[in-house]
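User: I'm curious what two different proteins look like when written out as structure tokens. Can you demonstrate?

Assistant: Sure. I'll show them one after the other, since each token string lines up with its own sequence. Here's the first protein:
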Amino acid sequence: MDIVIRAAIIFVILWFITRLSGRSTLGELSSFELILFITMGDMVAEGVVPQDYSATAGILAVGTMALLTISISWVNSRWRRPSTITHGVPVVVVHEGEVLHDVLHRERLGLDDLLAAARGQGIELVSNIRLAVLETNGQLSFFSGDQGESGGSAPPPVG
């Protein structure tokens, strides 16, 4: 039972760390950040299963984390409120050609990263962007020109 409790605590700590690291970081990890996250997994293994190298302990720890992940996915699929806590909400970073610098700063997204993503979508000028949204997975969505509604859910609130 001790391993299950340790695994659950480590799961919550890892979830919290990834939420703190920010969306833009999770959307595109650098090589260093990827190595850091992999190494972090190795470091927490000792905290979950201290000096117990048995297959049973490993399976129990991994099973606990898998069960928690599946449980969170199930809860998120049933109710919207927990999803906003576990995954966050999309955030508008450009509105009607105006970059919302305070939002960029709060989300730890650099202007250069925003402009590079816009260029990647074939957008030359920020003034051509009607709406840019930082999605919960760290990707940027751009809407430009006089496009009609796409039929999707309502756009996220500005700012």
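Here's a second, unrelated protein for contrast:
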Amino acid sequence: MINTDIIIVGAGPVGLFAIFEAGLLKMRCHLIDYLPQVGGQLSEIYPKKPIYDIPGFPSVLAQDLVDNLMKQAEPFNPTFTLGERVESLEKRGEKDFLLTTNLGTAIHAKVVVIAGGLGCFEPRKPEIKDLEKFENGKGVNYMILDPEKYRNQKMIIAGGGDSALDWAIFLSDVCSELTLVHRSESFRGAPDSVNKVMKLAEEGKIKLFLNTNILSISGTTNLEEVELINAKTQEKTTLKTDHLIPLFGLSPKLGPIENWGLNLDKNAIVVNTDDYSTNVPGIYAIGDINTYTNKLKLILCGFHEAALMTHSAYKYINPGVKYTMKYTTVQGVNEF
């Protein structure tokens, strides 16, 4: 079991800045995110997009901001669980929370901070019978965490965006047999990536099926076969495979957080603007996932919320302990 002071659900920019603010108060943080890397939407959706409203930066690329936040948090030694989804949260007593992920990782903490942006990013799944039967390590995955897992394996990637194209290019030298399936004749990804994929197909390094949908999947315990159908000719093709990776993008959802007894307004968590606490003592919500009067969904507002939240969390964890506010301009970060 992982033990920490604060569990931060969501490793986007606001969650990352909360590490720094908590570290100044000598509180340890463990972050959990369903995405395989930190950064949230900034890294997953628009890493090269410039951001113009971060104080002190007339313009900063989204991924550069994430990288800088990680450097800022580094002195406080945060720990991470990435590529796993929060499954349940149990409040076992005051300052006593147990969070469990879909893969069984257990994390114990005194405070829980929800910094999930728009919520948990869940994969858009194709409508295929028995799809769930082959999830959780049985052949169907919706993101690629460790490419080496697929070395000398047969894989089918479904999708037509940048993610599908980039992984097809990369894994063409890893998998023993790689197939790319796309339901249209044209791709949505970068032209250079499209050209590389077409060349790989011409060279016989990957199999390419356009205007093609996945009709069915089958296997005994693990995935063994995928049946394809051409949308124009209705011709069917059955392929042997070890893995199916549908890459149809991600959609934000509140997920299991809906069942935590929190006051909700639509898909947002209602908070007290004194410290961004929820109606459940010990649980806070910061960033785009919370709501209050005059709420602005801006990263810089999330940074402000993180600062106030951490000071409240310190008092919650250490009742009666007097703390004198110190400034990093007077005392270096490594001295906190």
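A detail about the second structure: The longest helix spans residues 299-317.
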